[in-house]
Amino acid sequence: MKIVFTGGGTGGHFYPLIAVAEEIHEIVRERKFLPPSLYYVAPDPYDERLLFENEIEFRQSPAGKMRRYFSLLNITDSFKSFFGVMKTLLQLFSIFPDVVFSKGGFSSFPTVTAARILGIPVVIHESDAKPGRANLLASRHARAVAISYPEAAQYFPADKVALVGNPVRRQLRTLQKEGAQEFLKLEGGTPVILILGGSQGSLRINDIVLEALPQLLERYQVIHQTGEKHFKSVEETSRVILEKSPYANRYRPFPYLNELALRMSAGISDLIISRAGSGNIFEAATWGKPTILIPIPEDVSHDQRTNAFSYARSGAAVVIEEVNLSPHLLASEVNRLMDNQGIRVEMSKAALTFARPDAARKIAEELIRIALEHEK
């Protein structure tokens, strides 16, 4: 059984692929199949450790970016994509996988195109409520289309679509409360707010949080994932802001939260403030945590605003648009939710209903079914 994964460039594309690979290995162990050969075809490996741990072989394939605006780079990148298709044709011909699983994104285009030319079945997954162009193009010839949000169904052929949710890695589905307080150096008895700015962090959210810190820390402890490139400036600024504050020790900034730190932080948090990437949303939903979403503006990212309001309609989150974001509004919304336990309980219930924690398993089952069928 040979399966090729493609898509990437961001954690939102890459980590769901890992979640599906984990389930493939689990199904193979349960059913005593021969070990599968898994490959990841993309411009770069993104996370070599996770590829190695999940026995996925990386194959490099160049891809040009498909921009939504006029740029001379679109011309040069079109040649890059053409070269990528030619190179990937050779890659796939040498592997000749039974099925290709694509998460979309510009880097998936050469692999999906090569698979179509070679007649290899393709399954795609769309993380966002408003699909990207790569998946819209791929869906015309895909065997199946898995989606995370019901709103996305209207963009794809009805006979191919299945609403499965967004795959979440196995470790992140289980929270770690034991030892979290000591590990994160937090005090007991004070509510905890977890702030996630996405895999790269968010300068705008960081700035607003820093301004709101004196007010927030009077009542809460704050765990803040700043993003690695923003961490030093956030740490230095917070030190100045909180120099005379008796609550300075309630603020815990981190450049990045690894799996264990994230499970611990989420495990003891009472409320999450987050960007609205699908990875963030479905992790918060899986954890059953009330959430304040601050989506990237529509003119910067076409998907996050749609994701945020789709999730908010479930009752699991509230949305503050970045144009309206201010330190006072953020603190007020945090206080409103934290002062009403009933609202938070209902949000938690709605989150767990929305989560669909079996998404990775369902996709893995379909990939294995198609792969075995293709082997005959």
Structure in words:
By secondary structure, this protein is an alpha/beta fold. The protein folds into two domains: 2-167 and 358-375, Glycogen Phosphorylase B (Rossmann fold, 3-Layer(aba) Sandwich), CATH 3.40.50; 172-355, 3-Layer(aba) Sandwich (Rossmann fold). The chain has helices spanning 11-31, 48-53, 73-95, 109-118, 133-138, 180-183, 203-216, 231-241, 259-268, 278-287, 304-313, 327-338, 341-355, 359-375, and strands spanning 2-6, 37-42, 56-60, 99-102, 122-126, 144-147, 161-163, 192-196, 221-225, 251-254, 271-274, 291-293, 317-319. The strands form two sheets. Strands 3-2-1-4-5-6-7 form a seven-stranded parallel sheet, with helices on both faces. A six-stranded parallel sheet has the order 10-9-8-11-12-13, sandwiched between helices. α8 links the parallel β9 and β10. α3 crosses α4 (109-118). The radius of gyration is 21 Å and the shape is elongated. The model has no long low-confidence stretch (mean pLDDT 91).
